[in-house]
Amino acid sequence: MSATPPRRMEPPVIPVAEPFWAATRERRLVVQWCLECDRPVFYPRENCPLCLSTNLEWRDCSGEGSLYSFTVNHLSGNPTGAEGPFPVAIVELAEGFRMMSNVVNCPLEHLEVDMALRVTWEELSDGRNYPLFEPAGGTA
Amino acid sequence: MIDQALRDAGLSIKDVDGVCHAGSSMQLAEYLGVHPRFTDSTMTGGSSFEVHVEHAAAAIAAGLADVVISVYASTPRGDRARAGTGGGGRRGGPPPGMGPNPGLEWEMPAGIRLPMGAYALAATRHMAKYGTTAEQLAQIAVSTREWATMNPKARYQSPITIDDVLNSPMQSSPLHLLDCCLVTDGAGAFVMTSAERAKSLAKAPAYVLGVGTCHDHSMISQMPDLTTTAGTVSGPAAFSMAGIKAGDVDLLMGYDSFTITALLHLEDLGFCGKGEGGPFAEDGRLGPGGSLPMNTNGGGLSYTHPGMYGMFLLVEAVRQLRGECGQRQVPGAEIAVAHGSGGVLSCMSTVVLGAEAALS
Known about the structure:
Low-confidence stretches of chain A: none
Mean pLDDT of chain A: 94
Shape of chain A: globular
Oligomer: heterodimer
Distance between the termini of chain A: 26 Å
Number of domains of chain A: 1
Mean pLDDT of chain B: 94
Strand order of the largest sheet of chain A: 6-5-4-7-8
Helix content of chain B: 25-40%
Order of helices and strands of chain A: HEEEEEEEE
CATH class of chain B: Alpha Beta
CATH architecture of chain B: 3-Layer(aba) Sandwich
Low-confidence stretches of chain B: 85-99
Structural class of chain A: mainly beta
Structural class of chain B: alpha/beta
Radius of gyration of chain B: 19 Å
Radius of gyration of chain A: 16 Å
Distance between the termini of chain B: 33 Å
CATH topology of chain B: Peroxisomal Thiolase, Chain A, domain 1
Strand content of chain A: 35-45%
CATH superfamily of chain B: Thiolase/Chalcone synthase
Number of strands of chain A: 8
Strand order of the largest sheet of chain B: 2-1-3-6
Number of domains of chain B: 1
């Protein structure tokens, strides 16, 4: 094991995404919603990528989702600080959008495409929290 | 490299009035002393050069240029040796001059290893959805290596087995080391002119019969469907323009950054149905003597992959159509498809090339 455990690269914040990261300080997962198309917009943008409307509002998410796909990275350090290979995931949120994250609290051999997940959080150095996902029923 | 390509065609730099480069066509033209009236700096990663063919064909047809060149050269292997780092450590900084990269905010913090992690995500989903196996993916690497044994310029020329692939170190699951392309130095160039002018030049022309391009995302987490690429748009567009069907293709040069990349092309270009790429590759039909020769130069998996491999698809396709490929020559090849994939399965660009015999 290296002297310094791997650390998560802390995400920069583009201005339009400030509400997303502000909500993570309260461990709330939020997403932009296009009021013209009635659909989520992720990642955050000035305009809806379907109709270009700026009529967007921020909504709370349930934090529930499923594992759209994953890969176990054997080459890089685990950003959660745990040892060994770790899963990088694309999570499909119940609201109908996808985001990249890590699955935690789940043995690698229990990872399965489409398994139910729920959001959990990892504290960043500036008070923000990074959204992670774990098996919906708790530790698998 | 440009000089070689121009000599091969029987032209000189003085004939060139159009310049394409997947970086800066201004820099390239200045270096060469060309003042082009057609210029194209399209950069769509590995498929840039197929897009250059498309744009050059349109420009020549529109009378914007007579002779267009595109060139690519890259030395990642040499650079790495000189730096002495042994590679790795790419943390996904934005490409120079590209401005804010959303990947820094929405992907890199998850620790994804790019580009390979993106393709691994596609492979995992394809395996779960369609039952594709690691052995089937490995067969693509095995068949490609069979071709490489007949290319004296290939970096790896010794045969491998499915077990060799499966026993090679896991990189980003389900992709093993031998599911991944090489990191090599390499260079290539092409020269394009009108069919009429080409008739009187040094070599038998390869005719551009059809072209098509589409991209549907930049970051892998934004890909609409991890198991279906924009090749479902670019492929049919190019085949339709050329007036061909998949069954007419004598040779497929399908971008193989990873085994899964090539598998997706087989499905999305219509050589087999969606989800059937695994069984399609399984019987070795992509290798020497098979019904669909694929990546006869040994591909990105065994021949060369300096980063943006699409130029080499075009070079091999042209050589095959001219019958210049020696031991690995596909007998009577008249129609070849070069299908480039750029970004992370992002930009697909398909070029259908034909020998003289394909025109009738």
